[in-house]
């Protein structure tokens, strides 16, 4: 494998979700959601970085002007990370023109929106360029969902060039089309640039990781599930009515550690070809997933990541997939993640 060493080196982290992204909290409530003690807690756990999702509608007004309070919070978080030795990835998560559940995002059909995307990265770079390149990285966009992978490659390069105009050595995190799925990695155009980190997300099998999740069509199923193997056994599938049953059957692929290895073949091949390190920027199980299955799934996937020397960040710190809930830490999962 070719190797391109970077000064921005990470191994294990988590996502700070529902703070500067996917949240209606503002003012004091937003300030209280994620604070300096949270950062210290995560550093004390043994994590080495945080992925910080941000949304356009929180960070910039509709005219493209930075929102001072939101940027003050982001800058504070980066300061807190630096104080305790945590690196950070600033992830542009949702745009006004692009959301990962959109069926036809304007980002890919309206040239003005693609230009706005590049302008947002120019603005973000202006705000953050003084941060050391070995401590802060930028992720171009969370889970691109272009109808054609060529559209994502085109738009991604616009953001990439906007950053490179001002910051030639900043590490840029780049993922493939269609939710950063490993399966689409061979469609990604990778620039010849040693300051890149290639990312994928992993939530397979969905019937386990998103059990009863209301935003997923499969979430309507509330019967028994299993892992490893098929999530839904034949006798349980037999009592599910159509059209849900047909949808579930499409997803009901047997999963185990070996299947996980097979799913990563394309990212591993791209790493071999390019020398760029890999990063699993999101993975996790919804809290409604039965705890024994959640533990078994995490144990298998983290072993695969370790085997292939892939850095990772869980989804998420204290959201619906969190390492922490209102009842405290999910210690079983934390122990699996952080065991040496």
Describe the model.
With 340 residues, the chain is α/β, with parallel strands linked by helices. Helix content is 40%, strand content 14%. The strands form 2 sheets. The protein has an 8-stranded parallel β-barrel with strand order 1-2-3-4-5-6-7-8. The chain has a two-stranded antiparallel ribbon with strand order 9-10. The longest helix is centred in the middle third of the chain and has 18 residues, at 111-128. It is globular and about 60 Å long.
Structural class assignment: alpha/beta
- Count of domains: 1
- CATH classification class: Alpha Beta
Shape: globular
Stretches where pLDDT is under 50 for at least 5 consecutive residues are none
CATH architectural grouping: Alpha-Beta Barrel
User: What is the beta-strand fraction?
Assistant: 5-15%
Radius of gyration: 20 Å
Number of helices: 14
- Count of DSSP strands: 10
> End-to-end distance, in Å?
24 Å
Q: Could you give the topology of this structure?
A:
Elements: E1 12-15, H1 27-33, H2 36-45, E2 49-55, H3 56-59, H4 68-84, E3 87-94, H5 111-128, E4 136-139, H6 149-166, E5 172-175, H7 177-180, E6 196-202, H8 206-209, H9 234-237, H10 244-251, H11 257-263, H12 265-274, E7 278-283, H13 291-307, E8 311-314, E9 324-325, E10 328-329, H14 331-338
Parallel strand pairs: 1-2, 1-8, 2-3, 3-4, 4-5, 5-6, 6-7, 7-8
Antiparallel strand pairs: 9-10
